[in-house]
Design a protein that fits this description.
The structure holds two protein chains of two kinds. By secondary structure, chain A is of the alpha/beta class. Chain A has helices spanning 44-51, 73-79, 95-105, 110-121, 139-151, 169-186, 197-203, 221-227, 241-248, 274-282, 297-308, and strands at residues 4-15, 18-29, 33-37, 59-64, 67-68, 80-83, 157-161, 189-194, 206-211, 214-219, 230-237, 253-259, 262-267, 286-294. Chain B is globular, with a radius of gyration of 20 Å. The chains are: A alpha/beta, B mainly alpha.
């Protein structure tokens, strides 16, 4: 097991009477993309602020890259990079000036600045437009530039707070691809908060799920999916509420629902689908396609949310 | 010091681009230089250089210049959602605060110096005095000193207001009201004083002379600058700014 770059012990933050982060115990190993999943208001952004030492914890403690976030926050900020809730770009300035400013902040020499800015902007397809004011760019381009800014000083840990939020699907997919490429090239540990589960499944080697500041689950996405029920999706014709009621009474069927004209079943681990398909056919319905798989991360996430409620 | 200059560099870049484009920022500067470096000196002639009273005029001019720029310092970063990223960087608290103050002071003081030089050229070209007109030594030292301290007053007060303001507009309005009060309260207050007090004040002014008045004004401004700077330093807390 690689050494943990982030370790929290009973980390909590209370705002008035709201516990935004509640007794969080985490250990994020080096060299992975760690997904921090949760719905809006779950405490993801507050956790990042605590880990960057921008807020002090109400209880508990956190160490990031070996620095205590309460007493050595400047050490954390020296070594880490961050793309926070907002891209944080100076829109009046050009892309090059934005990066040049943060390169100066990290005390890069003039020649190192020039080389590094080119090295980051070229693969993102932004180099040719580096002199334009950022205000004229699309949101997707701004997010890419913000990622480049966060990587400018070659941080060993990168915080990304919902980097694809608000992007159209094409821009989000492009950013995800670029992010994956850059992260593997730079060899940086990433702490990624998101409520986009496809993104988490594609990018993350380990994920944690939180709700109302409390940690619900943590592990490899496949391990989390394995905890969930087996899912069967049946396409066909003639399905009615009576069909669903019939299926719900069968042993091994945990749940039966109709989604987009298809029957979606949650099954116990050992359940067979063939007797259920026979039953559906005998009830007068036509079955055209049956697909059986482990649930997606989204299913596991939704189940965890429901259980918590 | 390097960090302070880095922040100041960014502030100057933004100040030059205020108004949406580099050209827009430059046009505003050219208009200001035209009014105070050419138009007003043309109207005053040689008095512009020789009258000791104009020295104090250069003390309050930076208040106007700096107040417009410094209102944006923190409120603008907050409004445009750039503040949190700046606070998440390795920059120390003092570097961020002092960088913004240095940028504002240098901006106001630099423009005033340019106006002074331009006005000297204008007066010499148009007054036809037959010899080179120069500012008296008292003026040559006093005007830049008062301009610097005046810019410092506006910068420290502006940063303090901007730290607390929710928007740039709110910060600018508060600062403008403050400057108006700073100018009009002494004027109106002086008028309301009893005649005996006015006579006493006049006698005191005569006794200290121009040099005494210059140093008194300078020390008063310096103390005020230091007080406001201390308040701004106390107010600047990362966690507080994040939660604001």
């Amino acid at each position: 097991m690689a050494e943990a770059v982030i370790r929290t012990e009973k980390l909590s933050r209370v705002f008035d009477k709201v516990r935004a982060v509640d007794g969080l115990d985490l250990a994020v190993p080096a060299g992975i993309v760690f997904g921090f999943l949760g719905p809006n208001g779950a405490g993801k952004t507050t956790t990042i602020r605590l880990l960057l030492g921008l807020l002090d914890p109400s209880e508990g403690r956190a160490t990031v890259l070996g620095f205590d976030t309460r007493h050595q926050a400047s050490g954390v900020r020296e070594k880490a990079g961050a793309l926070l809730e907002h891209h944080g770009l100076y829109e009046r300035l050009s892309a090059e000036d934005n990066l040049a400013f943060y390169a100066r902040v990290w005390r890069m020499t003039a020649s190192a600045r020039r080389d590094r800015i080119r090295e980051l902007l070229e693969p993102l397809g932004l180099w040719d437009r580096r002199s334009e004011a950022v205000s004229r760019w699309s949101r997707g381009m701004k997010q890419k530039l913000a990622v480049a800014r966060a990587l400018l000083h070659r941080p060993s840990l990168l915080f990304l707070d919902e980097p694809t939020a608000g992007l159209d699907p094409v821009a989000a997919a492009t950013l995800r691809d670029d992010l994956g490429t850059l992260v593997s090239r730079e060899g940086v540990t990433v702490f990624l908060t998101t409520h986009n589960l496809v993104e988490a499944e594609r990018l993350c080697q380990q994920v944690a799920v939180i709700k109302q500041g409390r940690l619900l689950a943590v592990g490899h996405p496949d391990d989390l999916k394995a905890r969930g029920a087996t899912r069967a999706e049946i396409a066909g014709r003639g399905f009615t509420d009576a069909t669903l009621a019939l299926l719900r009474h069968q042993p091994g069927v945990a749940r039966a629902d109709m989604r987009n004209g298809r029957i979606v079943l949650e099954l116990a681990e050992s359940s067979e689908t063939s007797p259920l398909v026979s039953l559906i056919v005998q009830s007068g319905c036509a079955v055209e396609e049956v697909r059986k798989d482990k649930g997606s991360l989204e299913d596991v996430f939704l189940t965890l949310m429901e259980e918590e409620q | 010091m390097g960090d302070v200059l880095t922040v100041a560099w960014k502030e100057w870049r933004e100040l030059l681009l205020l108004g949406g484009s580099l050209r827009g920022g430059r046009v505003s500067l050219i208009i200001l230089l035209g009014v105070f470096g050419v138009f007003l000196p043309l109207q005053s002639g040689a008095d512009w250089v020789t009258s000791p009273a104009t020295m104090f005029y250069w003390g309050w001019l930076p208040l106007m210049l700096v107040a417009g720029a410094v209102a944006d310092s923190f409120a603008g970063e907050r409004e445009r959602h750039t503040l949190e990223t700046l606070l998440a960087s390795r920059l120390p608290d003092r570097a961020i605060l002092f960088g913004k103050i240095v940028a504002a002071v240098a901006y106001g003081w630099g423009i005033v110096m340019a106006m002074l030089l331009l006005s000297l050229v204008t007066v010499n070209l148009t007054a036809r005095a037959g010899h080179l007109l120069l500012f008296p030594w008292r003026f040559a030292i006093g005007a830049p000193l008062l301009a610097c301290l005046g810019a410092g007053l506006a910068a420290t007060a502006g940063v303090l207001v901007s730290l607390r303001a929710a928007t740039v507009r709110q910060a600018a309005q508060t600062l403008n009201v403050g400057i108006l009060l700073l100018i009009f309260i002494p004027v109106l207050g002086a008028r309301a004083l009893p005649d005996a007090w006015k006579a006493q004040a006049g006698a005191w002014l005569m006794s200290v002379g121009m040099d005494g008045l210059l140093w008194t004004a300078s020390v008063a401004l310096l103390l005020l600058d230091a007080l406001l700077l201390a308040l701004a330093m106390a107010r600047f807390q990362r966690s507080r700014l994040i939660l604001d």
